[in-house]
Design brief:
By secondary structure, the protein is an alpha/beta fold. The protein is built from 5 helices and 7 strands; from the N terminus they run βαββαββαβααβ. Helix 3 runs parallel beside helix 5. The longest helix has 17 residues. It is globular. The protein starts with a strand and ends with a strand. About 8% of the residues have low confidence.
Length: 133
Amino acid sequence: MKRILVAYDGGEPARHALGTAIDLAEHYEAQISVVSVVPVHPGRAPMDRWDDAAVHAEALADAKLILSESGMTADLLEPIGDPAATIERIANDGGFDTVVIGSRGLGAISRFLQGSVSGHVATHTHATVIVAR
């Protein structure tokens, strides 16, 4: 385990994911990158607060502070796109061997209607995926 990608949106599941990644990075002397994807939902209105780039920039600043308090630094990534597909692409193209992502704890109906980012990433990346709860 040398390169860890953490999906981070500032929520409690993401904080658990970041904490898990920090523990792993310390143990394995691995590098961390943190990604917060600004979602694009074509034709959807109104936009919700999670669609705002400023929210994602704030989440990355939060992650940077948490990492700094642990004595670590990380590459911070803020791409725009479909969150699940974008995290998958970054993990695969970036040569990450581990992805840590939080679980929103969606029920079966919500997962069916909204899709599960963690489920997509777990089944579509070449890396080991850890879903933090």
